[in-house]
Amino acid sequence: MRRERCSTRAAPPSLFIVVLTMRNWPQVVVRAAWSLFGALNLVTANVGAQTTSDLPTPRPLASTFTAHPTEFSRITSARELSSAWIVVLDGADRTVTALTFEPNMSRPIGRQGSGPRELLFPSNLLAVAQDTVWITDVANARWLPIDANLNFGSTVAFGSIGGLMLQQSIIGSDMVGNLYFALNQGQEVSLSSKGPLQVPVVRVRRRDWKVDTVTTIVVPSGRASASRTVGPGEIQLMSTRPFAAEDQVAIVPNGSLFVLQTQTKSVKIIELSGRTRIGKPLSRPTIIVNESEKSAFRAAQVVAGSIFVMGGSGSAPRARSAGSRKPGAPLQDMPLTEWPKAKPAFLRGVLSSPTGTVWTLRPAPATEATKTYDLLDGSGQYAGAVSVSRDLSLILIGRQHVYFSYTNEDGVQTVRRYPFPSTSRR
Question: In CA terms, which of 109, 117, 157, 419 is 20 to 30 Å from 380?
Answer without folding.
Answer: 419
